[in-house]
Write a structure and sequence with these properties.
39% of the residues lie in helices and 23% in strands.
């Protein structure tokens, strides 16, 4: 069935592109074998014309969705004809530099992992038809080091579609310091990958402010809720900058912590100073910024905050909240 429809669409497109004048439904029906079969009396009796008309309208809509520009023209006798002019259906040559081709390759791999392989394949085929050189293969790496963007979160695909369609969503979200998830009603703006994790930026209706959510902390299904946004979408959505500030990347001071020997390698990589102690612990000086307390809690009993006092208190409060469940 899929092959038959593809062949029928191809034949219709060729007829419309090859015609020098608008073709009526009757002429198209008589020129394409599949339409001739659909209009045979033994296939539908008096209703055969209706079957052809429904098939033709679906095919015409499918071709337009694929990008074919089909004009509807009415002649002096009032008969409607259809034509696809070549100059209206010709794209200029597409040239991509190395960085643009690499971006296409990464996008295609993200789509493949997000169960959008069909869309990715179709997009690349359209680019090749429009002039993308065959030697530019976004699926193949051309360097010794090949970047990869993992997409393992089930929330990625519905959130990507919601961002595209400007559609509010509802999901359950568990903060780092909470034992149980809470419902969030969000107007999604943008998705971005930062250091191996995907984040969503959007307007949280319940809090009445912009928020950034880590997709790995979304539990359950992402559900659509209503249409239309209530808050304006900013021209530039700074997902990475927001997450970096929460993670202490924009720190302007230092904290002193004790770290169990052989543990906490991400903390060690950030340390400005490391001093080995005698009791199986090391003392580290690390950058201190907003969100450092949430990050330190993830290391559990392997980390003890020495100073400043407010950071120590924040970490203790978070650990108590988790312990209470």
């Amino acid at each position: 069935m899929a092959i038959a429809k593809a062949e029928r669409l191809m034949n219709l497109a060729l007829c419309l592109l090859g015609a020098r004048r608008p073709l009526s439904k009757r002429e198209l029906r008589d020129s394409i074998e599949a339409y001739v079969e659909a209009a045979r009396p033994d296939r539908g009796g008096a209703g055969s014309d209706d079957s052809f008309n429904r098939m033709f309208e679906r095919d015409k809509d499918d071709l337009r969705e694929l990008g074919l520009v089909i004009e509807t023209v009415e002649n002096v006798d009032g008969e409607v004809g259809y034509l696809a002019r070549r100059d209206s259906n010709r794209l200029p040559p597409i040239t991509l530099d190395a960085e643009e081709a690499a971006a296409l390759g990464l996008a295609a791999k993200v789509w493949q992992q997000a169960r959008l392989a069909g869309a990715a394949s179709g997009a690349l085929q359209k680019l090749r038809a429009a002039g993308l050189p065959e030697e530019v293969d976004p699926y193949e790496g051309h360097a010794a080091l090949e970047p990869r963007i993992p997409v393992h979160e089930a929330a990625f695909e519905p959130l990507m579609l919601a961002c595209r369609d400007r559609r509010p969503v509802l999901f359950d979200y568990r903060k780092a310091s909470a034992a149980h998830p809470e419902p969030r009603h969000v107007e999604p703006w943008a998705l971005e990958c930062w250091r191996g994790h995907w984040y969503l930026a959007g307007f949280d209706r319940g809090r009445g402010a912009e928020r950034v959510f880590r997709l790995s902390r979304i539990t359950g299904k992402v559900r659509s809720r209503g249409t239309g946004f209530t808050a304006p979408v900013p021209d530039v959505v700074t997902v990475r900058e927001t997450v970096a500030s929460w993670a202490g990347e924009t720190a302007d001071r230092s904290a002193l912590i004790r770290l169990r020997s052989g543990a906490g390698y991400p903390l060690r990589a950030k340390a400005a100073k490391v001093r080995e102690l005698d009791d199986g612990w090391d003392e580290l000086e690390i950058p201190y910024g907003h969100g450092l307390d949430a990050w330190l809690v993830e290391f559990g009993p392997d980390v003890v905050v020495v100073e400043p006092a407010e950071l120590r208190a924040d970490v203790v409060d978070r650990l108590r909240a988790v312990a209470k469940g």
